[in-house]
TrEMBL record:
Binds 2 iron ions per subunit. InterPro entries: Acid_PPase, Calcineurin-like_PHP, Metallo-depent_PP-like, Metallophosphoesterase_PAP. Belongs to the metallophosphoesterase superfamily. Purple acid phosphatase family. It is an enzyme of class 3 (hydrolase). This is Purple acid phosphatase. GO terms for cellular component: extracellular region.
Amino acid sequence: MACFLNKSIPSSLLLLIFCFISTTAELQRLRHEPNYDHDALNFLVVGDWGRKGQYNQSKVALQMGRIAEELDMAFVVSTGDNFYEDGLTGVTDPDFRQSFTNIYTSKSLEMQWYNVLGNHDYRGDVEAQLDPTLRSVDCRWLCMRSFVVNAQVADLFFIDTTPFVDKYFTHPGGHIYDWRGVLPRKNYIQNLLKDVEFALKESTATWKVVIGHHPIRSAGHHGDTQELVEQLLPILEDNNVHLYINGHDHCLERISSSDGQIQFLTSGGGSKAWRGEVKDENAGEIEFYYDGQGFMSVQLTHSDVHIVFYDVFGKALHKWSAPSSNQLNWAI
Ligand SMILES: *[C@@H]1O[C@H](CO)[C@@H](O)[C@H](O)[C@H]1NC(C)=O
């Protein structure tokens, strides 16, 4: 499949148009130039997907394409676990095409994908997914460990959450994780938290959106990630983050923090789902929980936010809107 970005302009040139990469910030910063001519920023969110089309991955992909046709999408966000079971074996791994390029084939999905890494991605050659040469196979692909995307009304902060989770280090359960670039772990996490805090404080966007693979709050199989509750959440609270978006639990869910400031949104229904488990750890208000496959759309304007969760038939399962303000009360 030819790379769509190559149709008119060389991809290297287009990348410059798409995103301006600055080296001055601690976290790598990309500017997403809008390809839309109105006030709204629309994007889709899918997580936990790469299974060569199996487990309804192809059905979810088809409906993502349909919804992207209706709304003027700027990009797609992937919340990680991009390739099952064990990430990619290298940059030439055929899984990249079989689980990504050949699955998300709708014309309306021909746009930038911003990807983070999940724990399964760390079980392969982690550097393969980060390697820019993958863009010569499919130039929609962009994966980095932690980075910021400035997209007009919103700043999106992508955070590499896997290194936070103790059990991957203490009880790897027979799995081998590729920790190149992460060790010594303590330094990695400390620097990352410092950089995220700095970037959040600098942000003047109407919306601050943080994206990571692991949930902070979840009623799903894995539940809350205690390490993130302790180390990351206080920084998000102090800096008026509005949305935290994750995957990892293979479900769709929305939880409000008890003070209503942060919405915790899980979009991890990109393929295998139906675990049939709901935990109520009383960590916030569970507003919506769906155990099957699907994805989410986000629309942000200067005045409000609209979130919609969809199932494999493209049916809207749950919609939620709120006005913008610095201290959101999230009253509907
Ligand atoms: C695919 O989606 C349908 C509809 O939600 C569901 O009934 C079915 O179990 C799903 N298949 C798999 C393999 O998860």
